[in-house]
Every structure is written in structure tokens, then in C-alpha cells.
Write a structure and sequence with these properties.
The chain is an all-alpha fold. Helices cover 94% and strands 0% of the residues. The chain has one helix at 2-34. The protein starts with a helix and ends with a helix.
Length: 35
């Protein structure tokens, strides 16, 4: 069970790391649509 918790923490940390890039990509695509 502890390994599962550790895995969850790892995934959340990874998602936190990739979240800014996802937001940036989303804003970039919407910005491209406007122009």
C-alpha cells in the first residue's frame, strides 16, 4: 500500500510539473486562433 501512495505522489508531482506547460500551450493555441 505505501508504494501505491508513493506512486500517487509521484504522479501528482509530475502533473504539477507539466501543468504550466499545458496552460502555456492552451493560451498559445487560443492566442493563435485570435490572430
Amino acid at each position: 500500500m505505501p508504494s501505491k501512495e508513493f506512486r500517487k505522489e509521484k504522479i501528482s508531482k509530475r502533473s504539477l510539473f507539466f501543468l504550466p506547460s499545458k496552460i502555456a500551450l492552451h493560451f498559445y493555441t487560443s492566442f493563435e486562433k485570435i490572430f
